[in-house]
Design goal:
The chain is globular and about 55 Å long. About 45% of the residues lie in helices and about 10% in strands. It is mostly helical. A two-stranded antiparallel sheet has the order 1-2.
Length: about 160
């Protein structure tokens, strides 16, 4: 609620002419800043390693956004109506290493909620959310099951 109230105050201020408040979508600008704040979560640590370094940083994504534009994201449910609409074959992949961003629990939740009669779940051992972006061992394990799944269900 505090975040929603902050966003509401900022939107009101901007409507009255105040300059937008620009924040980072990753709350720390470096590993040192994260460590100094006493945060040790693997997702935040690896988000910094991915999005704020040449590994994943892109010129059009400078880790900046308007605080007033983030309100909709707080109530967004990526799996809204999965019980009704997600009827196609589904293969859910996530790593066994949970972090604060929730991909571990989200993967299980999506699998449970999906209406599909043809669904499989793959938990990649010792892999985090970010390992599944581009780390060869983790992505190789995921692809070992994804490729046959797609061939079977897409007829390729």
């Amino acid at each position: 609620m505090k975040t929603l109230e902050l966003i509401a105050r900022q939107r009101t201020a901007e409507a009255r002419g105040t300059d937008p408040l620009i924040v980072g979508y990753i709350p720390f600008a470096s590993q040192a800043e994260r460590e100094q704040a006493g945060v040790s979560d693997i997702d935040l640590e690896q988000a910094i390693d991915y999005y704020l370094t040449p590994r994943g940083q892109k010129p059009g994504s400078p880790n900046k956004l308007r605080l007033s534009s983030t309100g909709a994201a707080l109530g967004w449910d990526a799996f809204h109506l999965a019980e009704v609409l997600l009827t196609q074959p589904l293969h859910v992949v996530f790593g066994s290493v949970p972090g604060a961003f929730g991909s571990y629990s989200d993967g299980q939740d999506l699998f449970r909620r999906a209406r599909s009669a043809h669904k499989t779940m793959q938990i990649v051992p010792d892999a985090s959310h970010y390992d599944l972006y581009d780390q060869p061992e983790a992505t190789g394990q995921a692809l070992a099951q994804l490729v046959p799944f797609f061939k079977k269900h897409l007829g390729a």
